[in-house]
Amino acid sequence: xxxxxxxNYRVHISIRCxxxxxxxxxxxxxxxxxxxxxxxxxxxxxxxxxxxxxMRMELFGFAGWIASALFYALFLIWAYVPDTTLKSVGFTxxxxxxxxxxxxxxxxxxxxxxxxxxxxVNLMSTPGLASYATIIDTHTVRLPEGTTCFEDDTMxxxxxxxxxxxEVNRHLFSATSDLVQESRRKIQN
Length: 189
Description:
Blueprint: H1 9-24, H2 32-80, H3 83-89, H4 98-125, H5 165-173, H6 178-188
Protein name: N-acetylglucosaminyltransferase complex, subunit PIG-P, required for phosphatidylinositol biosynthesis
Organism: Plasmopara halstedii
Membrane topology: Multi-pass membrane protein
């Protein structure tokens, strides 16, 4: 019996079935390989091409990991070993130790600045509170008339949709609202 090692389960089963059938009818059909390859060649070619691409990406990732570890080790050696020791070993040209502190500080500040800029851009692109777009827009999904999560407590999950701002205000700020009555009780006590 032939053994195959494939990472893709379907290909593993296909190749295993091929080998079992080939062993069973060996000699009956002389061109079994030609028939098999004509049927499964497209699938196997696609599988092996994707596997080769994945292996190439794994190799690049590993090489990048090794290169970054080597660069970090060289950076630490340069940053912590005194200049006299580096010159005695033969390294006569290297940047000022000032950059060992300045570059990481600039990276951290740039990261923090990018967070602030990201939030500022999001706030600038959000319509103002007085804008009609905060109430309704092209993406609004209206609930069927008369069904809201406030009124229909029998359903486990209410319908998915946008509740009208008027409905929300009526339940939050009307004199009969449970929230208003509860907050009034807390204030009085």
